[in-house]
Design brief:
Elements (H helix, E strand, L loop, with lengths): L3 E3 L2 E10 L5 E9 L2 E5 L7 E4 L4 E4 L1 E6 L1 E2 L2 E2 L5 H12 L3 E8 L4 H14 L7 E2 L2 E3 L22 H10 L2 E6 L8 H6 L4 E4 L6 H8 L3 E4 L15 H7 L5 E5 L7 H11 L4 E4 L11 E5 L2 E6 L2 E3 L12 H11 L3 H8 L1 H6 L17 E4 L5 E6 L2 E3 L1
Parallel strand pairs: 2-5, 2-6, 7-10, 10-11, 10-12, 12-13, 13-14, 14-15, 15-16, 16-17
Antiparallel strand pairs: 1-23, 2-3, 3-4, 6-21, 8-9, 18-19, 19-20, 21-22, 22-23
Helix pairs in contact: 2-3, 5-6, 8-9
């Protein structure tokens, strides 16, 4: 089990610190209690760590994750949430959105209650709010979601679930949202994302003009781009108000396509997600995901019919992938930190290194090995 020390005062010395402008400055970083107390500070009291040769980055934020380390949100068990929290920290992730699947109302209520009970008790990465991936999706683009529970957008059901545990992000197929009623109303409560959708480009654009500001795992489980049919992916590129998640494991999206997307979307609209399942950090084998059996071979998760089912990756490995794919360092870091924070309205408290924000920090050495992680001022021993 990971052990932590509560930090009252801490100075991280002689580091390359990625400041709030995502530029490196050399100096010291001070932590007091949960917060960043100063950058290039002269403070010298409290415990200190020499970070010579190391870089200090904002902690990574995974806003779309089902499971890791043999645990899954849909287990609806407290120990699973805590295991995910601890395991994520090992990969530089300091906060996350537990992500549900397309399930019955009763199952979702149970999951929401468990997550609500664990908020504030996390042993590692902390919870922002739930990401509802389904059930308001297209049957034709359900992917690894269970068909029998796919249903039309239901504002009252959503509000009931949100009253149990706050929702940070909810998925919807725009073509299933009549007159964009759900998106218009729910966007006042949380971020609404286009996902698992058969919509054409025009329908997607209409959704983006009426409350949808996010796209779930770009290119996957949505209509693609061709010369005369822009599809949802094309509409995302054409809508400056929309951020897009991308699974950067090199399997879900080809590196060539990924580079194209990062170039078009720019530094402020790309979000790296793991979309990982409980098989992440585990051996190949058979696992459950949203009530269906998933077969993991060579780290690739598939249903029996060959449908891709989530990933077995993590944000830090995907960050390293991005660098190897040719994405510049700043763009890659922002996609793992401030961009997901902004997507769920958490950028006031986390996502960048700024005085007054939580001390959610990732320290890496010159070889890009994780040396240390701080979560709200807690240090891994």
């Amino acid at each position: 089990m990971i052990q932590y020390v509560r930090v009252i005062k801490m100075i991280l010395k002689n580091a390359e610190i990625l400041n709030e402008n995502f530029e490196f400055v050399h100096g010291n970083l001070a932590i007091e209690n949960e917060k960043i107390a100063g950058i290039n500070t002269e403070k010298s009291d409290g415990e200190s760590i020499d970070c010579t040769g190391c870089k200090i980055l904002p902690g990574f934020i995974d806003i779309h994750i089902h499971g890791t380390g043999g645990a899954d949100v849909c287990d609806a068990e407290s120990q699973s949430i805590q295991k995910m929290s601890e395991n994520l920290t090992r990969h530089g992730v300091t906060s996350f959105c537990p992500t549900t699947m397309t399930l019955s109302a009763e199952e979702l209520e149970k999951i929401f209650s468990v997550v609500a009970g664990e908020k504030g008790k996390e042993k590692g990465a902390y919870i922002h709010g739930i990401n509802m991936e389904g059930p308001y999706i297209s049957l034709a683009k359900k992917g690894a979601q269970k068909a029998e529970h796919v249903r039309k957008p239901d504002i009252e059901e959503f509000k009931k679930l949100n009253s149990i545990c706050n929702v940070s992000l909810v998925d919807i197929a725009p073509e299933e949202d009549e007159n964009n009623a759900f998106s218009k109303e729910v966007s006042k409560i949380c971020t609404v994302s286009a996902a698992h959708t058969s919509a054409d480009g025009e329908t997607a654009k209409k959704g983006f003009e009426n409350g949808i500001t996010h796209a779930t795992h770009l290119f996957n489980a949505m209509t693609g781009i061709s010369a005369r049919v822009p599809g949802v992916a094309g509409a995302v590129f054409d809508s400056d108000n929309v951020r897009a998640e991308i699974i950067c494991d090199g399997f879900h999206v080809n590196p060539i396509t990924l580079r194209m997307a990062f170039k078009i979307l720019g530094e402020d609209r790309t979000i790296v997600i793991s979309d990982s399942m409980k098989a992440a950090d585990c051996e190949d084998g058979e696992y459950m995901l949203g009530g269906q059996t998933v077969y993991v071979r060579d780290g690739k998760a598939l249903l029996a019919d060959g449908t891709i089912a989530a990933s077995t990756s993590n944000l830090f490995d995907e960050f390293i992938n991005l660098l190897s794919f040719g994405i510049n360092f700043t763009h890659a870091v922002k996609s793992c930190t401030i961009n997901p924070a902004r997507a769920i309205g958490a950028d006031i408290t986390t996502g960048s290194i700024k005085e007054g924000k939580f001390a959610d920090l990732l320290i890496i050495d010159k070889d890009f090995n994780i040396r240390n992680v701080f979560v709200k001022g807690k240090k891994i021993i």
